[in-house]
Amino acid sequence: METASGRYEAEYLVNCAGAWADQIAVMTGDNCPMTYSAPMLMITTRMPHFATPVVGAVSRPLSFKQFENGTVLIGGGAKGFADRAHNRTRLDYAKLAVGASNAVDFFPIMRTATVNRMWAGLEAYMPDNLPVISASVNSPNAFHAFGFSAHGFQLGPVIGEVLADLVTTGRSEFDLSAFRIDRFERKVL
User: Fold this and answer.
1) Which part of the chain has CATH 3.50.50.60?
2) C-alpha atoms less than 13 angstroms from C-alpha of 154 in its C-beta half-sphere
């Protein structure tokens, strides 16, 4: 429920709102310099198996994974166009073409690939690329977990455990100090 001060108070509030989490944080009285963008991915039709590990390139944008069913996921951090206000994204086909070209350079078999679909999602980012995982500083019984910089799905299970511990016991077995929501606050001298 919203109070007279404009803050949201509830028995418990867990803010896992992704690209909209900064707006929820403000409702609890917390503020943070979160940004958002639209990382793009492509997935191919099934191909003969040729790659087991996840591949990432340092010299150019490429992340690459072949699934057990033979489809290949191609990414690499290329960003599309994000319209958070309308929950929409738009692809940047020139950047997707660079990613496809990089995949062919590293794996010549990709010349025979057919891209099945392409998409962009809205993702939340913090300036240090570390997520926010903490109790609210300004609202009792509010907790935050967002800003995973496109790594949230990978961390989902452990973050669920951490949040359950924070909500039920007020602490975690992990040192969460690096992930505090107020880590970017200016210190008064």
Assistant:
1) 13-35+126-179
2) 5
d(CA 130, CA 176): 11
Q: What is the pLDDT of residues 125-172, one digit of tens each?
A: 999 999 999 999 999 899 999 999 877 777 888 999 999 999 999 999
| Interatomic CA distance for residues 18 and 124, integer angstroms | 6
Asked whether the beta carbons of 152 and 145 are under 8 A apart, the reply is: no
pLDDT band at 6 (very low <50, low <70, confident <90, very high): low
Q: Under a CB-based contact definition with an 8 Å cutoff, are residues 144 and 25 in contact?
A: yes
Q: In what order do the strands lie in the sheet with 40-44?
A: 55-56, 63-66, 72-75, 40-44, 115-120
Which residues of the chain are in CATH 3.30.9.10 domains? 39-121
DSSP state of 137: S
- Phi and psi torsions of 125, nearest 5°: -135, 140
CATH number belonging to domain 13-35+126-179:
3.50.50.60
Indicate whether 65 pLDDT > 60.
Answer: yes
Q: Among 41, 38, 22, 20, which residue's Cα sits nearest to residue 30?
A: 22
The count of other CB atoms within 10 Å of the CB of residue 15 is: 25
Provide the token pair at 52.
Answer: 């087991």
Q: Model-level pTM?
A: 0.82
